Amino acid sequence: MFMLGKRRWALPAAPVVALAAIAAVLPAPAAWARAQAQSSGTGPAPVPARYAHQRLTWHPCDEWPTLECATMTAPRDWHHPGTGPDISVEVSRHLATGPAAERRGVLMTAAGGPGGTGLGRPTGIVKYAPRVAAAYDVVSFDQRGVGRSTPAHCQTPAEFKDFYAHDLRDRSPAAIQGVLDRSRAMAENCQRRTGGLLPYLTTEQTARDMDLYRSLLGAEKISYYGGSYATKVGAYYATVFPRRVRRAVLDSNIDFTAGMDQWESGQPRSFQRRFEQDFLPWLAKYDSVYHYGRTAAEVRAKWEARRRALHDRPLTVGTSVIGPNQLDNGTIQAIYKAAGFPVLARALAALDHWDTATADERALVPHVFDSYQSKEFAAEFFSVTCNDNAWSHDIGHWVERSARDARKYPLVGPRELAYAATCAYWPDTAAPQVNVTGEGLPPTLMLNSLRDPATYYEGAVAAHRGLRGSRLVTVEGGDHGQYLNGNPCVDSLVEKYLFDGDLPAHDTTCPAPPLPGPSEISHRSAATRT
User: Fold this and answer.
1) Residue 106 and residue 224: Cα distance in Å, rounded?
2) 354/474 same-domain check
3) What is the pTM of this model?
């Protein structure tokens, strides 16, 4: 189990505590279910005039001077817009710069995660795909619950830090109970601190926010680009509003035909595959530089030895404490893209000669191993992940499954219990279930690498089969995020489709971009960051 949208490198059941003690401040599960049951139904509903007729007041975005930003008002619950307070959704745009005769309309993008912020995402396309930016108004938004939109709140900074502070490989009864306690607290605090908004932090509600944004832009139809979790956002939007989509590119796909619980259950295997088949051999190839082993087996043995050493004696660097879970965290984040391999390798090598490490190496180590996503990201991640479909409340099942996956897939498998238990403690969901079929859609272009650690290939194939009329471009290698990733084959297929509507006649394959050398640390801010 792992949150998508991590930083890109430019670098027998344990006992359960009942919820009765907090019944006075939290809505009962039945009340929660009734609140979400109000959101039933997936067909488009009339948009009340107070939303449909609002005017967006554009102004320069504070952090992105090439973009304009505005605040859009949306109902808390699209199925009952007259109940509860409104929410705000922050939106952004970059207007097409080319001649009017060559313009193609609106290209909407969305953030991955769930929990990523989308407001600044047009800047990547503007910078690295100027031809697209000349022809399209490139627009995006912070999804409900995150960023500058009406936010979700689940944890204090101390609670967030503690959630990741422990060695999640520890399977002792006390350690397992600690994981369960922290996961239960996460679920309870999300309910308590986000209150009435929480049942409506779902992919389906976000899709309706997108259509309001489309209408306020004056666009009859939009084209769409989304990566990672945003492939689900796009697939949901296209299913609810199929005749509002001109073209859609879905990059690094989760299996949006299945529940989040089913999809996330495959991540321990896919992260382990990426680690063993791509990163370990790469590091062994450059043993003369990093001195970490001449074979993948030697590299893995040394990495495990370092993990054991950090378990016995964590390293303190400034305010950071680097223990085994931090070693896992840095490794997981770095292998999203091969561009992260040299950064991770330098940090691992620095740990091996810490007494003689340079100032730059000492600064790099906490940057690599103690940089997590924010508590705001986590709040949105769990809200959407746990709300989108019902998870099993059988804690014993998750304890047993996580033990099995921790043995087989030790990089990410140990984290499974913390993530699954949070959703197991979540109140029952009644969010609308959207059956993604592709009916009424134009043909869709899908992209996925073979060894993507987060949005694994098997899930992309299942999504492709479920999305009628789609074409799948299989990219060799294992990077997460294919478009504008230094791959001319992929970029040409995407832009031919965006400009001319032309898809490959059949599913096709692109080679992977070359792996970086030991000194090739990319500082590029990828437009496809998810």
Assistant:
1) 8
2) no
3) 0.91
Q: Which amino acid is at 239?
A: T
Residue 77 CA to residue 85 CA, distance in Å, equals 9
Please give the C-alpha separations between residue 468 and each of 41, 127, 233, 489, 498, in angstroms, as whole numbers.
Answer: 22, 33, 17, 24, 19
pLDDT in tens for each of the 530 residues of the chain? 455 444 433 322 223 333 222 222 333 334 434 444 444 444 556 889 999 999 999 999 999 999 999 999 999 999 999 889 999 999 999 999 999 999 999 999 999 999 999 999 999 999 999 999 999 999 999 999 999 999 999 999 999 999 998 999 999 999 999 999 999 999 999 999 998 999 999 999 999 999 999 999 999 999 999 999 999 999 999 999 999 999 999 999 999 999 999 989 999 999 999 999 999 999 999 999 999 999 999 999 999 999 999 999 999 999 999 999 999 999 999 999 999 999 999 999 999 999 999 999 999 999 999 988 899 999 999 999 999 999 999 999 999 999 999 999 999 999 999 999 999 999 988 888 889 988 888 999 999 999 999 999 999 999 999 999 999 999 999 999 999 999 999 999 999 999 999 999 999 999 999 999 997 554 333 444 45
Tell me the C-alpha distance between 463 and 476, whole Å.
18
Domain-embedded: residue 19: no
Domain with 479 in it: what CATH number?
3.40.50.1820
Greatest distance between any 2 Cα atoms in the chain: 67
Domain range spanning residue 107? Answer: 63-151+201-259+434-510
CA distances from 127 to 68, 131, 191, 336 (A): 16, 10, 40, 22
